[in-house]
Amino acid sequence: MDFTQPIEIAKNIYWVGKYLENDPFQCHPYFIENGDESVLIDPGSMLEFDMVVKKINTISSMQSVKYIILHHQDPDLAAAVPEFEKLINRDDLLVVTHSRMVPLVKHYMIMSDYYEIDKRAFKLHAGELQLQFLTTPYCHSPGAFVSYEPVTKTLFSGDIFGGIEESWEFYAQDDYFDKAKQFHAEYMPSKDIFNYALSKIETLDLELIAPQHGSVIQKEQIAPLIRQMKALECGLYIEEGYHEQLIDTIDALKRKDSALLESLSHFQILMDTMHEAVIVSAEDNTIIDLNAATEHIFTATKPEFMKRKLLDIVSKHGLKPFEQALLMDQFDPFEVTLTRQDGEEFPALVGGRKSHRDNLPVRITTVIDLSELKEKESLLFQKAKMADMGEMIGNIAHQWRQPLSMITMIIAVLKEKSARRVLKDEELGAKLGEVETSIQYMSGTMDDFMSFYRPNKTKEDFCISHAVERAIEILNPGLRENCIALAFAPRCDFYVHGYMNEYTQVLVSMLTNAKDLLIHRKVKLAYIKIKISEKNGRVILEIMDNAGGMKGKNLDRVFEPYFTTKHKSSGTGLGLYISKMIIENSMNGTLRAENMDEGAKFTIEMERVVPNE
Question: Which of 63, 48, 68 is closest to 6 using CA atoms?
Fold first, then answer.
């Protein structure tokens, strides 16, 4: 065999190394001829440089090389790369290696860009040529790998299967293991690590193995050689006493594994006793696991549920916010409408975050069913409405008192004159007209109150000042009767989007609280001020009084349900709680309370809008 010429070991694959006489540590560069995208594999040091250049120019030309593969960083494999770069002289030349190797091989003064296999799906496509890369960590370097060409079924194995041979032979013979075992015993870190690499390699369909050292291995020698290599004691295993340490380590790992399994069992029990649903989904939103509460909440068995994707549980009304939430690594809980297995929609509080499971990215989603809570909330609203009805009846009584007195007086006069037979037709007609006017006023008052207490069906743009004026109209009789001054300067240019009746109800509730406190504390020169302003695109409504404010402990609890400072006969404690829910949950605003110098201040903030024409 003429070692001064390139030797074709498979179709378009050539050994282009240099035979170093009497050197047991032969190094083997390889060349894959692939037009102007040819590949040079493990090019070697300056000892082989001239011969490698000569052989490649015999096959093709140095300028045809587009890729240089470096299976590890040692100088016997990579030292000559800068000189090859000068001869190749291509701007698109790429050095193919693992990202763990780049910080090391750059010290050879390599100028080309890197093709990092772990960032390129461990594949290289160059025209019709396809190469696959398998990592073999710590055999013998952290970023070590091997390259597989599937058409010729050739494996370029780097240091693995290398040999130290006193009498070197190009193709391995049956005794090759005896020539390779010393090299592997000294260079492979441990039997476990070496076997991990070998297990990957033996899954390949191989015709030929081309190592960086030693001899080229043909198909008939491959399987027996791998079996012998797997039994080889190497690295740590050749140290005395290591086996005993290994057994102790394995026992410790078994104990830890047992503890971990017990911990996982406890965790699963905890998961299944939770009342909130926990759903684990993959990156493509396929549901891969769930707890018992999920089956109960969604009325579906685990096998049924795992046929669905995460977005399948969301109603069409909630899809958009849910999709936006899934774009984030972690999102705060928000309310959305979900769908049970039978199609029934229900309100839920959903939270979630990205995590890992079995080293794979997953998303963990938690779901709290709000159906029962919403029913209780509805009862609270109803109770608040009933309390408001009492306030409404009192206000109607104020509004009707004067017209009723007038009607009573007119009827008494008409009766008296009729009894004396002095009632004239003209006078009767005039008095009946006055009665009719009073009745129409009373009827109008009733319509106004009924309209106020009728809930809106849809949101609308409305003027804040109009809502304030309606609330004042409802409460004015009680304010006048108790000599409470009310100051308000309308601002007709401030509009918000929401439910006007509900907003007015909130104002009535807060004004009523202020009125009752002023009366209870017998404040002289009592007043309530209402102010409307704007800041940063938000409309701010402030209600202030001079009733002395709220005690510190009460200020912190003022929006809690059923909390009230009034006597049981005077209030339910629901007004401000319901008010806060209306403003914040239904209209995306904020409602807060604070103490000022003379009394309390309630502030409502909502986004300002331009009204629809």
Answer: 48
Return the SS3 of 137.
coil
pLDDT at 110 over 90: yes
CA dist 1 to 17, 23, 59, 162, 199, Å?
13, 18, 17, 21, 34
What pLDDT, on the 0 to 100 scale, is given for residue 313? 86
Coil/strand/helix, residue 357: strand
Distance in angstroms (rounded) separating the CA atoms of residues 78 and 159: 13
Pick from 249, 137, 250, 258: which is nearest to 198 by CA?
137
State both tokens at 569.
């006969």
CA dihedral 74, 80, 81, 82 (to 10 degrees): 120
**pLDDT tens, position by position, 412-431:** 877 878 888 877 778 778 87
Query: Half-sphere exposure (CA, 13 Å, Cβ side) for 215?
Result: 22
Q: Are strands 590-595 and 600-607 parallel, antiparallel or unpaired?
A: antiparallel
- Is CATH 3.40.190.10 what the domain over 7-238 is classified as, yes or no? no
Q: Bridge partners of 129?
A: 126
- Tell which CATH classification among 2.160.20, 1.10.1740, 1.10.3470, 1.10.287 matches the domain 372-454: 1.10.287
Alpha helices, H only, 290-370:
292-298, 302-305, 319-326
CATH class entry, domain 455-613? alpha beta
At 58 the three-state DSSP class reads helix
Return the SS3 of 18.
coil
Looking at domain 274-369, its CATH superfamily turns out to be PAS domain (3.30.450.20)
Is residue 54 within 8 Å of residue 28, measured between CB atoms? no
Task: Kindly report the pTM of this predicted structure.
Answer: 0.44
514-550: pLDDT as tens digits: 998 899 899 999 999 999 999 999 999 999 999 998 7
d(CA 435, CA 192): 106
Scored b (16 or more CB within 10 A) or e, 321-355 reads bbeebbeeeebeeeebbbbeeeeeebbbebbbeee
Report the C-alpha gap between 545 and 75 in whole angstroms. Answer: 86
Alpha-carbon torsion (309, 314, 315, 318), positive or negative: negative
Question: Of 25, 4, 1, 24, nearest to 16 (Cα)?
Answer: 4
What phi and psi, each to the nearest 5 degrees, are found at residue 612? -70, 135
> Tell me, what's the pLDDT at 381?
60
**Cis, bond preceding 140 (omega within 30 deg of 0):** yes
Q: Which of 521, 530, 544, 533 is nearest to 598 (CA)?
A: 544
Please state the three-class secondary structure of 94-122 as a single string: EEEECCCCHHHHHHHCCCCEEEEHHHCCC
Provide the CB-side half-sphere exposure for 438 (13 A, CA): 19
pLDDT of 394: 58
Calpha distance 233→192 (Å, rounded) = 10
**350, 331 contact by CB (below 8 A):** no
For 169, other C-beta atoms within 10 Å of its C-beta total 15
306 vs 485: CA distance, rounded Å: 65
Tell me the domain boundaries of the chain: 7-238, 274-369, 372-454, 455-613
Chain length of the chain:
613
The C-alpha atoms of residue 111 and residue 447 are separated, in whole angstroms, by 87
Q: Identify the band that residue 295 occupies on the pLDDT scale cut at 50, 70 and 90.
A: confident
Tokens 């998303």 identify what position? 363
